[in-house]
Here is the input.
Amino acid sequence: MSYEQETLTKVTDARAAAVSAGSQGPEAQAHAENALTQSLRSLFAVAENYPDLKANQNVLSLQEELTTTENKISFARQFYNDSVMTFNMMIQQFPSNLLAGMFNFSAREFFQAEEADKEVPKVDLR
Amino acid sequence: MYEQIKRNKRDSWFLILTLVLVLCGLGLVIGLAWFGSRTGAIGFLGVFGVVAIVWSLIGYYAGAGMVLAASGARKVTHDQAPELWNVVDEMRIAGGLPMPDVYIIDDPAPNAFATGRDPQHASVAVTRGLLEELNRDELQGVLAHEMSHVRNYDIRFATLVGILVGVIALVADIFIRGTFWGGGRRSEGNGNAIFFVLAIVLALLAPLAAYVVQFAISRHREYLADASGVELTRNPLGLAHALEKISADPRPLRVANRATAHLYIANPLKGKKAKESAGLFDTHPPIQKRIAILLAMAHQTEGETAEAPQA
Here is the structure.
């Protein structure tokens, strides 16, 4: 039970951190959101331990919502990164680079996932 | 990608202009054939132009609603179809688009289409059969294809071309029927025989030409939407497997007809045997060829990931 309590606390903390990191630029935001994704995965893992729970309609819809939330985060990043790539290319390419130079447009930062965050989290059952 | 969207928009306007010119030429020749005099012809062209513009405006603003109604599509909310809604939401985020309206068609044949006039007024519809047969990845592939139609402004283009082709066919039809039932008698006194023959030939050929143009564009856009759909999901296999399942299903879609067939992701009318190449009057490229292209893409990305792990 203590493990479940801990998982839940982690999820709530990670959520609060992700919300507050919104204003601190892509890098801080990426870090906070990765922590949230990781804690959500351990929440999935907890649910796996209860066969009755897994078949429950509410849990199934929760799982669908968690899956889609994770997907939405990664698709939003993908769209952001695609846009950054196009933007960074445009400000270097002729003729748009002339205007970019005139108005001081500078290359933007990509939203990168950290290597460690991409690994499937280990579930430690106590 | 943005290049392709820009080219799409330019091509769209060029083709629409061509169809409008065909329409005007047809009107002028019919006018000359029926009334003989230049003023009569211009008057006819004027009336005819007004009708065509009114028709186009109605089609432009109400076309999507008519298509959805004709297909028996029912609008759903997130709570009624959570998985479908979420997958649409994911794909519109991946494409940086506003959320479209989501519809379900109560039909066991798997298929889907998108309609509307721009991304702000777009709708996607899927059949019940599609939801039942496809897994989440495959559904994502199909909806990425549909959101690409929205993103590339194919929906606006399909709507406009559909209207113009409809007007051309209607006018040609009116002329041929009118001539048969009495127009001929009227023209005997003052009509010009040369224009008369020309008008008949044009009235027969113009709709055919219009259909060929429409179908050629439709086929080209299916390939484009497959490719840009994969750009959204980064998973060519999802759409490839979905197309396999859709083509393996023998049931035709009851609610589809020749006027709406070109909107769907795969030809809903079926019946014909699988072919290697597309004919002039096919609305869709051969599905096996589309699957082969997608599988080749999957092969390519596999090679890339082996060399450098994706970020």
About this structure: Residues 193-233 of chain B form the longest helix (41 residues). Residues 2-305 of chain B form one domain.
